[in-house]
C-alpha cells in the first residue's frame, strides 16, 4: 500500500475542463488531475472523485465494474486497480445474499489499537469525542475522534493501511 504522496499516478495526460463534474455524484472535480480526482483512461472524458469510484467499484464488483461513461471494462478496471481502487472479487451487491451486499454497509466500529470509548468499539455519536470517522480513502476502517486524538475541526482521517 502507498500513502497519498507516493501512490501510483495515472499515466493519462489529461486535465478536467473548468466546471467538470464527477459522473457519479455530479459535484465539481476541480481543474486538475490529483490523488482524489481520477479520469477514465479509455474515453479521457469521464472524471470521478476517488471516493465515488471506490463506492462504484464496491457496488459493482470485479465482474461488472466499468466506466459509467464509455462502458470500457477491462482497461478501466486494470487502471483503477493500479491506482489503488479496491474492486471486490465477488458478485455485484444487487445480487441477494452475497458477501458484496454486506461490504456495501457502512463500517461501524473503532479500529484504533486502543479504543478509549466507555461504551465499546461499536458505540458512536453524531458528533463529539465518540463520533466515528471512517478512512477518507477506503472507508474500511474507522476511529473515534478521541481514540486517534483528532480535533473537532478535522473532518477527515486516513487509516494506516492507506
From TrEMBL:
Signal peptide start-end: none
Gene3D superfamilies, per the entry: Zinc/RING finger domain, C3HC4 (zinc finger)
Residue ranges occupied by any RING-type domain in the UniProt entry: 22-71
UniProt keyword terms in alphabetical order: Ligase, Metal-binding, Zinc, Zinc-finger
Molecular function terms from GO: ligase activity; zinc ion binding
GO cellular component: nucleus
PROSITE patterns with a match to the protein in the record: ZF_PHD_1, ZF_RING_2
Source domain of life: Eukaryota
Protein name: G2E3 ligase
The species this protein was found in: Pedionomus torquatus (Plains-wanderer)
Lineage: Eukaryota, Metazoa, Chordata, Craniata, Vertebrata
Amino acid at each position: 500500500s502507498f500513502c497519498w504522496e507516493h501512490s501510483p499516478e495515472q499515466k493519462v495526460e489529461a486535465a478536467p475542463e473548468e466546471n467538470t463534474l464527477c459522473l457519479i455524484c455530479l459535484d465539481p472535480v476541480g481543474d486538475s488531475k490529483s490523488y482524489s480526482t481520477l479520469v477514465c483512461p479509455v474515453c479521457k472524458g469521464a472524471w470521478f472523485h476517488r471516493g465515488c469510484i471506490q463506492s462504484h467499484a464496491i457496488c459493482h464488483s470485479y465482474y461488472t465494474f466499468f466506466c459509467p461513461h464509455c462502458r470500457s471494462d477491462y482497461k478501466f478496471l486494470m487502471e483503477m486497480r493500479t491506482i489503488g481502487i479496491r474492486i471486490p472479487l465477488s458478485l455485484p451487491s444487487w445480487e441477494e445474499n452475497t458477501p458484496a451486499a454486506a461490504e456495501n454497509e457502512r463500517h461501524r466500529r473503532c479500529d484504533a489499537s486502543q479504543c478509549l470509548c466507555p461504551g465499546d468499539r461499536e458505540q458512536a455519536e453524531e458528533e463529539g469525542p465518540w463520533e466515528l470517522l471512517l478512512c477518507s480513502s477506503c472507508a474500511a476502517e474507522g476511529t473515534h475522534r478521541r481514540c486517534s486524538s483528532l480535533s473537532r475541526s478535522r473532518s477527515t482521517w486516513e487509516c494506516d493501511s492507506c
